[in-house]
Design a protein that fits this description.
about 375 residues, alpha/beta, 9-stranded parallel β-sheet, 8-stranded mixed β-sheet, 25 strands, globular
Amino acid sequence: MLFANARLVLENHTVKASLRTEGPRIEAYGEHLSALPGEEVVDCKGLYLAPGFIDIHSHGGGGHDIMDGDAEDIVLAAKAHLRHGTTTYYPTTMTNTDEATIHTFECFREARNYGDAIPHLEGIHMEGPYFSPAQAGAQDPSFIKIPKQEHYRLFLEKGGDVIKRISFAPELPGAIEMADALRDTGIVLAAGHTNATYQEISRAFDHGVTHLTHFYSGMSTIHREGGFRILGAVEAGYLIDGLTIELIADGMHLPPELLKMILKLKAHDHISLCTDSMRGADMPEGPTILGPKVGGVKCFVEGGIAKMPDHQAFAGSVATTDRLVRVMHQKAGLTIAEAVAMMTINPARVMHIDGKTGSIAVGKQADLVLFDENIQVNEVYVSGKRV
């Protein structure tokens, strides 16, 4: 297949060129490619052709939560995000019973065998249950636990083949020991829903924690103790160069002015975007549920965000990946290439899958999204197939 007359979105810039795929892979790209005999030609009509978007943190969409209890719920949530350009998707659990979490592992195994008309399901992101009660946010505090070896070993036994990332509060008793036990398993260790000081995050970094979950959300920041200013996890994200961060860049969790400040203080290639979406993503506004249908919290979607009934707090994001890129481009002032990189190659590096996806490069998966100047998605391809 030849994608002709495109504006290819490369890692650092865009260029008018064509791109050829062979089966599931990118075979070539350049300004002077011409169609081969019998080759299917897609006329991109001057639209942007970018790597498929990678969402490393999402709880659901399309009216489904990934912990609803059935493999089809994961598949339908993933398909809802596929319509917005997401070609790699990491379903994310919330704090819940051990049984519900382990059952989600089983559902995930079944979901990733549904076929090729869905995003790549690379693995599960476990968000919790090892969190600070003071930073619980939308996580149910009744399920929050202290990390104990016999407990996290249970999760590894039941889901070690599918768990690709764990977010936890590294200041908890036993958390550093857990990090030491997991750092060589290939699981990405992230600090999230944490009340840690800068020193505690720095220590966690030395023990394998490389990422901060939804920067600024559920996270400690500078405060005073006995007159002295104590730095928190937010400041650690700025000061520790090797720490990567992720932003819920829906323009609401973090206002545009804050996004601009983050971009001034943190290296662009260490910033990823994530939807952190709940079931209300890709759905009409109105009543919805935060969390699984059984035991979830009633809330509603209004003005592009999920809210609690009393209007006093957000109940989660309803963002999609194209919206995040649009916000970073139109409201935070990034170029198309810079914004796309935060939704493609940067998260690919966080999850160590950049060798096969995340950028337009020969030999990588032909995961592609075609969109216009307003980041409105026109077509999506997974492994070279239009989906």
